[in-house]
Structure formats: C-alpha cells, structure tokens
Amino acid sequence: MREAPVVNPIERLLEATAADMAQVNALILSRADSHVEMVPELARYLIESGGKRLRPMLTVAAAQLFGKGKGSAINFAAAVEFMHNATLLHDDVVDESDMRRGKPAARMVWGNKASILVGDFLLGQAFMMMVETGDIAALGVLSAASAVMAEGEVFQLAKTGDLTTTPADYAEVIRAKTAVLFEAACEVGAMSGGADAAGREALARYGLELGNAFQLVDDALDYGGQTGTLGKNTGDDLREGKMTLPIILALTEGSETERATITTALGDAEATAEQVANVVAILERHKTLARTLDQAHAHARSAQQALEVLPASDMRALLSDVVEFSVLRAY
Amino acid sequence: MREAPVVNPIERLLEATAADMAQVNALILSRADSHVEMVPELARYLIESGGKRLRPMLTVAAAQLFGKGKGSAINFAAAVEFMHNATLLHDDVVDESDMRRGKPAARMVWGNKASILVGDFLLGQAFMMMVETGDIAALGVLSAASAVMAEGEVFQLAKTGDLTTTPADYAEVIRAKTAVLFEAACEVGAMSGGADAAGREALARYGLELGNAFQLVDDALDYGGQTGTLGKNTGDDLREGKMTLPIILALTEGSETERATITTALGDAEATAEQVANVVAILERHKTLARTLDQAHAHARSAQQALEVLPASDMRALLSDVVEFSVLRAY
C-alpha cells in the first residue's frame, strides 16, 4: 500500500459528497418523522448521535464515480442508513449493550420494546424509500442484504461462547453482519450512477472487501488494536462471549492454561479489567491481533484492486484512500 | 346481515384456495430455510403451529376473484404471511408473552434474542419474495404497510396503561397494527389478479374493514366475548395494560369505584382471576363488550358493502361470508 495521505480521506470523502449528503440527511430526518412521538424521538436520538454515515456516503460516492446519476442515489443512501440504524437498535437489545456512540444506548432511554419496534419502523421506511426509486433490481440487492444480515446475526448468536467456532465461521459472520451492507451500499450507488455490469461488480466487490476489512479492524480494536492498548471499552466482545478472530486463533494455539484464562472470562459480563488484560496479553503473545489486522490488510488490498478495472479519476483515488484509512484506525 | 351459512366459510375458503395455498405453503417452507440451523427451527416452530393463514388465503382469494392472474399472488401471499409472523415474533418479545397458538412462544424456547433476529430475517425474506415479482406498485403497498404496522405497535406501546387513551386512539392502533396488513394482503392480491383501479380499491377497503372487525372481535374475546365467559386466557390484555375499547369505554363511564377496580388490575401481570372477573362484570354492566362487538359488526358491514361494486360471483359471496363468520367468533 501507498503511504497514508496527509489529509484524512474520510474528511475528503465528506467534502466530496457534501452536497448529496445534505439531501440524504434531510431525507433521513423527514423519514424518521411520525405523529407517534416516541418514533422520531428515539430514531433521531440514534441518527443524530454522530455516526460517520460512512455507508450512505459510499452510496453517493459510488453514484458520483459513474456520474450518469438517475437521482435515486439519495433515496438509496438514506435507505442504507436506515437499514444500518435498524440493525444497531436490534443489536443493542440482543447484545444488552448499555452504550452506543459514547451515549447511553436508545434501549437504556426508551427501553428494549421501543427499540425493537422503532427498528422495525426504520426498516419499513427504508423499503418505502427504495420503492420510490422504482428500481426493482437495486431493491433486490438491498432486500437480499437485509435477509443475509439478519441470518448472520442469528449465526453469531448461535456461535456465542461456542469454543469450536472456526475462522471460516467467523469469516461468514463478518461477511453477513457487516460486509454485505457495505457491498449493497456501494452496488446500489453504482447502479444509480448508471454503472455497467463490470462497474457494478467492481463496486460490489469493493464494498464487500472494505466491509470485511472494517469489521476485522473493529474486532482487533475491541482488544486495543495492534498495540493492545487498554481503554474503557476494551474487552466488550470478550464479556459478551463474541467469537472474534483474535480469540478463535488464541484458543486454537494457546496452552491449556491460556485457554482456561480465556474461557473463564469469555461470556462473563462481570469479567474484571485484570482478566481482560490477561487475555490481551495472551492475544499479543500469539500475535493474534496483528494477524487479524494482516487479514484486514489483505481485504483492504482486494478492495483497492477491485477499483483498478475502472478508469482512473479523483473519486476512484479517494475511494482507494478511504480503504487505507479504514485499516490505519487500528494503529 | 344474512343468516350464518351452514358450512363454516373459513372451511370453504380453505377449499377454494387449496391449490394456490399448497404452492404458498411450499414457498413459505422453502424460504424459511437457512444453513443457520436456528433460523428454520425457530421459524418453522411458529409457522407450523397451526395458524389459520387467513391473510395469505385472502391474497390468493382476491387474485382468484379477478382471475387475470399474473402468477405473483403466490409470492405476495407468502410475503404477507412472513410479515405477519415477523410481527408475531417481535410482539411476543414486546408483550413478554409466554404462549402463542396454544404452545410456548418461540421466545420461551429460543429466547428473545433469536426471536428478534429471526423476525428480521423473515421480513428480509418477505421483501425478497416481493422483489421477485417485479411488481413495484404492489411492493409499495406492502412496504408502506410494514412501516405503518411498526408505527402502530409503537403507538400501542406508548399508550400502554395510559388512562387518557381515547376511542379514536384505539381506532388508530387497531387500524395500524392489524387492519393495514389485511388491507395490503387483499389489495396486492387484487393487483396480482389484474384488478382495475376500482377493483383494487374495493378489495383494499374490504381488507381494511375486515381487519378492523377482526381486531375488535379479538379484543372483546380477550374478556370472554359477548357473554363475558371466563377462560384461561381471559384478561391477558388487562394484565398487559392494553388500552382496548371495552376498557376505554368502561373507564369513561364507570363510577369511581369501578374505575379503581379496573386501574388496580390494569397492567398488573399478577392480577388474579377474581380481579379479572370483577373487571369483566364492570364491562358487562356498561355493555362495553356488546358495544365493541357492535363496532365490529359495523366494520363487517362496510367490508361486505365494499364488495358490492364488483360483479357477483361465487368468490365474492364467499369473501362476504368470511366477514360474517369472523364476527360470529365472539358469540
């Protein structure tokens, strides 16, 4: 990979998509509205809580890349963000998470019940926005993503605390729960931008590989990233019993004692900071954080390669830089 | 209304739609499948638990009524049933229900988490089946229904135990949470059958009014129906704090003592059979069960009237009889 660019590529992506994203954000706000007060209150609490809106930015960026826009990218971008937020609402209930984006999770404020139902509402609104484009092919891409994402979450749930989980199982979970929505976001963006079959395929692969890289980095960051630096949220996945790659590899390669240290803390919501530190030390000893990040790099390279079939342009270069930045988060 | 027909109209509807429903049922089973074992296990547990499949039957019956079938009714019928089952899974989590269709609710067997996620999966699969028809207008009808249903559930949640709930609030809740899916089921059926605008509108109104009648009857049955006959599930809505019409009317018209008897039991999961019996006695004294059923009858008549713009046919007569039967359940 090239040297990291001087200006943060996410900032440059924000700038390049600003005009479209202003429309997307207006649409998001208006479609989160309802005469049932709890709906916009809860939805806006989450939506305005400072997420990066990376997924909808990718949708409008992909449309810009091809530039023969049919104008439907705005709707698809808002729909993608709603799908993502619906998933977050349901995931926080399923994971019993207390915090999201540095604030109490919506379920801590309005309860699990409202979080489930407002998630359903956002999903319904997402489909309505898609339908308004009249683009049935793009609707197919996003509805398939929706089913696969839920299936991936069930698979992750079934594998929670399951010590026999393999790296292949893990690869399937992150593809389904994260990468498929990145893939769909980029693919429908390309479709709205008038991409041909090769362009559409390139952007789909770009999104899928970027999403895989993104989740691998997240899963390494949960244990402090490359350097295993301990922070206040370090070990959340451990306490929830999530079978992520750093743990799967360490369980395979660790000694009996190391395995016991891991399995005692795994899935124990009350595991202490010291227990987490001991587990992180094992992950470092077996270099499983570094190897997780190596896999992230490999996916990142694939994402960049996917773009190479397309004509060179500023947007293509920017999308390539975004990939690089997304893995640098871990250092 | 005419005399009740000799043969149960639901049985006759089953017979009239048997060939189409065999296809619908096969599609439902195949689309509830997944390599993630927990998905088909949980989904089939609910799907095969002996629900009447009234909604998908209405979809194929509506298509048959117009008879210029585009063949998409099968997909829409299966999608409607998946939407309904997704809602049941989420509702049982929200209502903390232990039982569904005489068996332990899915959440009691697989847990709340799996019920939420498999509900999401069924919704995603529903949209995929709709997309496969290529009928974007019908997709619009069903996606709007999906958003309104969730909104209605949030409204019902917000109104739980709220003593200021009005009959108008109640009418809005039952329209959104129940009638809109009946409406959509009938409307997309008519659309797949090649109905013109008037036919489509007639079936939409038929479904909406039937759905309203259906829910009013359900809410009266929860307190024992017309006769206030106490059974083992009598008073579930009371214990959950659901503001249904029999309770709303009794709170408006009851004495201070009667109001106190109701409000003490309302929302108390541990309310005794005696408390429930005392509340039912109040509902009978103010005839609020009978008046709830009067409203059901009025909606049922509207449903039948909606059909009258259409040419007479055996199917039209059968759909009219189905309405009649749906309100007779309460006696």
Structure write-up:
Two copies of one chain form a homodimer. Chain A has helices spanning 9-16, 18-31, 38-47, 54-66, 73-94, 106-133, 136-159, 167-192, 197-221, 236-240, 245-253, 256-265, 273-285, 288-307, 314-328; strands at 99-100, 103-104. By secondary structure, the first copy, chain A, is mainly α. Chain A has a single domain (9-328), classed as Orthogonal Bundle (Farnesyl Diphosphate Synthase), CATH 1.10.600. A two-stranded antiparallel ribbon of chain A has the order 1-2. In chain A, helix 1 packs antiparallel against helix 15 (314-328), helix 9 (197-221) runs antiparallel to helix 14 and helix 11 (245-253) crosses helix 14. At the A-B interface, helix 5, helix 6 and helix 7 of A face helix 5, helix 6 and helix 7 of B.
Using the alpha-carbon principal axes, give the shape of chain A: globular
Give me the side-by-side strand order of the main sheet of chain A: 1-2
The oligomeric status of these chains comes to homodimer
For the sheet with most strands of chain A, the description reads:
2 strands, antiparallel
Radius of gyration of chain A: 20 Å
CATH superfamily of chain A: Farnesyl Diphosphate Synthase
- Mean pLDDT across the residues of chain A is 93
Most extensive protein-chain contact, per-chain counts? A-B, 42 and 42 residues
Distance between the termini of chain A: 15 Å
* Helix-strand pattern of chain A: HHHHHEEHHHHHHHHHH
CATH class of chain A: Mainly Alpha
Number of helices of chain A: 15
- Total domains of chain A: 1
